[in-house]
# Entry
Amino acid sequence: MFALVASLLLTPSFAEDSEFAGTEAPVIEEVAEDKEPETKLSAEFGTAFATGNAIFYTVAGSITASHEWDRNKLGAIGGINLGAAKADADGDGLLSQAERDADYARNVQRYFAEGRYDRFLSDKDSIYVLAGAFQDPFAGYDLRSHEQVGYSRRLIKNDTSELVTELGFDYAQENYTDEAVAGGSEPYQDVFAARILLGGSHTFNDSVSVSNTFEYYQNVVDFNDVRILNTAALTTTLSGKLSLKLSHSLIFDNVPVEGFVSLDQTTMATLVASIL
# Structure
């Protein structure tokens, strides 16, 4: 299931600089038009399962791809987070034979996908558009899709560190589950929000790196509606193509879907394969 509302859920970005000498034209950093195209592709997978006194499983995975050429960059990500268990229906603290024979009860179900295009104005600045969607019935969403346009600036970019900020405008379409509607929610809502993002990463050595991305969404129609998303990760290289990643994602929505809680948190350990 996807995780939480605009808590780590929503994050920011902005900035830019130009210099003027009297009435002279501003100095613009040029993007190298002849640099080699670069393609990246990686996949993540993690799982846990148990049998015996407790019976359950979880599966999480994602695929990330990007292609950069001249002044352009295309990126996409898609993934799943699923879990189910044999439920202790009578609450007596153990699984009876009848409960063991029953079907698995789904307790996690999140599907997500997003695509993005950046047009670079300089080595540090770009205009971007993106679109994405997720389904998370355990957060009340039958489908939440959104489209966004904004400005991105690389504040720091070197061999070991990167810091990026973004400022954008987001339009989301929220379709709620039957359970949410039964709890008092409207079946559908449009959300118009300003978005700010701050994201960074740092490589300590050839084996260890950390990253964090913080997003803040402010509903511009209902100022009481705020969404925050934050994702932090620690990655350790196991081999040239394989890494182990420990990540934590947080989604906070102070106006959650009716009948659901404001905060979702997910902690995962996954293997990451760098295919390209």
About this structure: Residues 97-101 form the longest helix (5 residues). The two ends are 27 Å apart (CA to CA). Helices lie at 6-9, 97-101, 178-182.
